[in-house]
Amino acid sequence: MQHTISVMVENEFGVLSRVASLFSGRGFNIDSLSVAPTNEEGLSRMTIVTRGDDKILEQINKQLNKLIDVLKVIDFTDGSGIEREMALIKVTAEDESRAEVLRIVDIFRAKIIDVTPKSYTIEATGNPLKIDAILDLLRPLGLKELVRTGSVTIGRGAKGWKG
Amino acid sequence: MKMNGARIMLECLKKEGVDTVFGYPGGTVINIYDELFSFKEIRHILPRHEQAGTHAADGYARATGKVGVAIATSGPGATNTVTAIATAYMDSIPMVIVTGQVPTALIGNDAFQEVDIIGITRPCTKHSFLIRDVKDIATIMKKAFYIARTGRPGPVLVDFPKDIQVAMGEFSYPDSVEIRSYKPTVEGHPRQVEKACKMILEARRPVLYVGGGVVLGDASEQLTVLARKLGVPVTTTLMGLGSFPGDDPLSLGMLGMHGAYCANMAMTHSDLIIAVGSRFDDRVTGKLATFAPHAKIIHVDVDPTSIKKNVRVDLPIVGDVKDVLAQMIKFTEKMMDKTAEFVAAMEPWHQEISAWKDKHPISYKSSTTTIKPQFVIQKLRELCDENAIISTDVGQHQMWTAQFFKFNSPRTLLTSGGLGTMGYGLPAAMGAQAAFPGRQVITICGDGGVQMNIQEMATLVQNRLPVKIVILNNNFLGMVRQWQELFFDKRYSQTCMELPIDYIKLADAYGAKGFLATKPDEVEKVIKQGFAEKGPVIMEFKIAREEKVLPMVPAGASLNEMVLNA
After folding, report:
1. Which of B272, B343, B512, B549 is the most buried (most CB within 10 A)?
2. Interface test with A, best of B116, B140, B280, B305 (most A CBs within 10 A)
3. What is the pTM of this model?
4. Considering the domain boundaries, does residue A159 fall inside one?
5. Which long-range contacts (CB under 8 A, 24 or more apart) does A67-70 make?
């Protein structure tokens, strides 16, 4: 089962490699990982999408917590989080397909951020399933390049992560 | 007062109460050594290899309970410490390893003797630091010691670039340390502890399954009180030996692959396993699917990741084992009636255990012509001091020591349980002897492992560390040979050490004494001669070459499928 985990980490030297090598060393999967500083100084937030049964997920949570630089681990499996991802998509757009690309972009409320006579570059944001869906529609038209940020997730409701 | 970074490092060690360090000089630590030259408060022991120096710091830590300290230079000096760091990590030994590093401006440039030691040791350290400013040395060292010794202890590496060692700064050591992302749980949750006690008092076939955590947590006394008060039998892992008196009637001895028949049978037939500071290692559980099929499991450990990692747990208690056991004692005292009833109801269980003990005790066939290794261990036990510290290497001799020595007190057995590091025994004994100059320190080795750090004979002689080195010599890598005999049709591939070594001459070459026994009736004499010597000694025993460690649970088999005679 796929899980999305947020990890609050001290912005210390080598913290990303500690987390990454924990996953590789113990044979845990990483489907995606994103990391950036937060509003709180010295603190970064990682969002890791991983897979495993309950036992593995429990170990992932505990092992992450065991890392000295990890302040908090939040597991958003129960739909308690809002998940978003951004993709930059370069797609072939010539002649009749130009209009089709624009229609798809419009339907998905995406944006064209770069145009050439032969291509569009699109910025699409949404939950990962939505990104998958727009890609499925664009693929037959000629996908030239794709960058996805990986998921970021935040909890629902008025409370911040500290409660 | 302003001083350079190297001096600040030494002042930090002094503040932490470090009296002995094990280290090896080199280009990127030369400034530390220059300061050490006139720094009299810290004793420095120079090993002949950084691996051995770091094992010595580990042995020092295991014997004393204090944080062991090792120093190595950058590059090869640092990589030589890796096996010893991994050894300490697997057995949760508190250590701080200071490695020199090339100047910060050169990091990443493939400089001479540069290696990314933090990267290399990341999976086998509890934590690591790279010092990047002279201002940070004191805080980092304070944190390093704090992290090494608290929670589940472990080795912490501090990488110390040369330019920071020469940079000038003020020394001021922080009084306290606060790491918001690191707060180990000490006190067990009272409600969980209460539930555990109730489960225990309802059980009829309980076993205390005790690991190295009880030794590391200095909880032997609490464990012994609780076990005796309730009359619950105790089995220990290799790392737990000594945490409960081996000659107590409640002791089942060691369990697992080479454990006692009664211990493995008790686990298999138990209705409640109380795991304390142990981690259900594969050498303990055997085949997981058939492990303790009738038992509920209570697991007390300071490290939450140990709980439910390998086996299902019915009642987890995260906390310091000493604290939790003390809470348990208090709670059971409050329930005296229930406790008395419980003790009485366990009578059939004790009878069953005692029948298993009698059926297949740990034993061997004695011989009047060849020296049986088990006989040597028994004789050593009989003739050594009561508070002697024993270290071992890894292999058959290690298991014979575990089976036959009957350890009665904690921190008297130093052995590489988790990583299984050959070459550990001699340097670990060196570290223990440095900590306790007046105590008898014996290392029991095979002829394979002893050669992996034999160069430390020089360190022993030079520093007047009178370690007694016992070599059980069968001219084989015995444990692998045993597996080859049992599971590979006696195809002894590369396990015969064909060149016989004259260990007596070898001892002589280092300026130590050597004694040899080739017949059983010489064993006692050689041990007495060895023990009588003031300096370091080799005692070599030519043992029965194809003696096996038995009983044995073959890898992957269930605990009750023991090979008893083969």
Report:
1. B272
2. B305
3. 0.96
4. no
5. A67/A9, A67/A18, A67/A19, A67/A22, A68/B126, A68/B127, A68/B147, A68/B179, A68/B181, A68/B182, A69/A9, A69/A10, A69/A12, A69/A15, A69/A18, A69/B181, A70/A7, A70/A8, A70/A9, A70/A10, A70/A19, A70/B181
